[in-house]
Design a protein that fits this description.
By secondary structure, this protein is of the alpha/beta class. The protein is 33% helix and 22% strand.
Length: 499
């Protein structure tokens, strides 16, 4: 009997398979990290074959841990690191180049050339996005322009392109042997190539970027059966029934179904999404307009998004590059060893700054240093950077939407850091709420897949399953809070104009 739904969460640092029951509770998990390839400054790549091997392994691990097999799985949902871009050979299944990760900045010059005299907003009224290194379209252009033979192969129809949802689904459904080449509206909305209101590839923008449209996947809704498992020994016959970019999946898993509801995910970066309903809202304050989700033939739902490039990865940097901590969890105790940041502010503009600044010329800066500052202050400044950046995004969202947020739903690994969550509530001035199941990215993909096959009846089941685990209410002296925030805003300006 098909009692469970499986989510494949192909993330920036690892791939996971999580099995959920009808109550939205975790039954078992398989997880494996993949290598971060850094061939030169500003470049970040992944080995797509390693990722696919890891996906196979974690699915098998999750099934084995729960003593389940394919017959127990009603459907599979896929969620993914969104803008990371791959081109591969349709006949052999071999990638022609490592995947270019969303953090990669090599397309900076391409974006500047495309902007020309029209500016970074050249396509924004059509696709909701500014021209920036973040998005997938310029990454495809870079590959076609710089890897010998790619353009010829693309124009001949031998090569296809996609984000990691497309790569995983293509392999799950047979790969070179009839694999389905699809993406969903949420991932397509991160390419700069899809019209927000048409939900179709924009031929004019594709032509501007020199991208043959035959390379691109078919755009489908976020919850429908795309195909069935056909990969050898991996989920044969099981419906592959959902795809959502990771942040949209988390929004779905957090049951943010009404306009004005918002969530923030604390992962490698931080990503806040605000449901704006059935019509796109175009930002005047540095946010992105994006697809939130589309369930089968229903009308699409849109969102405003504030994307922050570096939050959790800043803790990893302290661990791996500086050796100040040996595990990410140690940062909270180190930060608690001091009462405040000692006047030290850390602006983690390692790949430029995303929302609300969109400054690719920015680079990381630690400011306010004196001999008094120690590693505890640096740890505290590292955590506080996530909270300050989130406040900047929230203020931009409230300005764009005209909605004052009543509370912020949060998820992701950093939400287990009590110090950070309390500081976040203090800075925002609204309660911060974490659900019982914090793995909302995988959960959202599972819900969408389950809804597509009738395992769940609809959004009402998601709302019924959602439950609060922890709540932080704002406190502290408002004058101190504002002083800290103004010092942060000043620190941000010190990161500009480095490149």
């Amino acid at each position: 009997m098909s009692d469970y739904v499986l989510a494949i969460d192909q993330g920036t640092t690892s791939s996971r398979a999580i099995i959920f029951n009808h109550g939205g509770q975790i039954v078992s998990v398989g997880q494996k990290e993949h290598a971060q390839l850094l061939p030169r400054a500003g470049w970040v790549e992944h080995d797509a074959l390693e990722i696919w091997a890891n996906v196979r392994e974690v699915v098998a691990e999750a099934l084995a841990k729960a003593s389940l097999n394919r017959g127990n799985i009603a459907a599979v949902g896929v969620t993914n690191q969104r803008e990371t871009t791959l081109v591969w050979d349709r006949a052999t299944g071999q990638p022609v180049h490592p995947a270019i990760v969303w953090q990669d900045t090599r397309t900076d010059q391409i974006c500047a050339e495309l902007a020309g005299g029209q500016g970074a907003e050249r396509y924004q009224s059509r696709v909701g996005l500014p021209l920036a290194t973040y998005f997938a379209g310029p990454k495809i252009k870079w590959l076609l322009d710089n890897v010998p033979g790619l353009r010829e192969g693309a124009e001949a129809g031998r090569l296809i392109a996609g984000t990691m949802d497309s790569w995983v689904i293509w392999n799950l459904t047979g790969g070179p042997d009839g694999g389905v080449h699809v993406t969903d509206v949420t991932n397509a909305s991160r390419t700069m190539l899809m019209g927000l209101e048409t939900l179709a590839w924009d031929g004019e923008i594709c032509a501007d970027m020199g991208i043959p449209m035959r390379m691109l996947p078919e755009i489908r809704s976020s919850a429908e059966v795309y195909g069935h498992g056909r990969a050898q020994g991996l989920l044969p016959g099981v419906p592959i029934a959902a795809a959502l970019g990771d942040q949209q999946a988390a929004t779905f898993g957090q049951a943010c179904f009404a306009p004005g509801m918002a969530k923030n995910t604390y992962g490698t970066g931080c990503f806040m999404l605000l449901n704006t309903g059935s019509a796109p809202v175009f930002s005047r304050n540095g946010l992105l307009t994006t697809l939130c989700y589309q369930i089968g033939p229903a009308d699409p739902v849109y969102a405003l998004e504030g994307s922050i490039a570096v939050t959790g990865s800043l803790v990893q940097w302290l661990r791996d590059n500086l050796g100040l901590i040996s595990t990410a969890a140690e940062i909270e105790e180190l930060a608690k060893s001091v009462p405040d940041n000692g006047g030290c502010y850390f602006v983690p503009a390692f790949s430029g700054l995303f929302a609300p600044y969109w400054r690719s010329d920015a680079r990381g800066a630690i400011v306010g240093l004196t001999r008094f500052v120690n590693k505890g202050h640096l740890a505290r400044a590292t955590l506080e950077a996530s909270a300050y950046q989130t406040r900047e995004v929230l203020e931009a969202m409230e300005a764009d939407s005209g909605v004052k947020l009543a509370e912020l739903k949060v998820d992701g690994g950093m939400t287990h850091n009590q110090l950070l969550m309390q500081f976040q509530a203090d800075q925002l001035g609204v309660p911060v709420v974490r659900p019982v199941v914090a793995e909302t990215t995988a959960l959202g993909a599972a819900y969408a897949a389950g809804i597509a096959v009738g395992y769940w009846s609809g959004e009402q089941d998601v709302t019924a399953n959602w439950a609060q685990d922890a709540r932080w209410v704002p406190g502290g002296d408002p004058a101190i809070r504002e002083s800290q925030y103004q010092a942060w805003k000043k620190a941000v300006t010190k990161s500009f104009d480095w490149v």
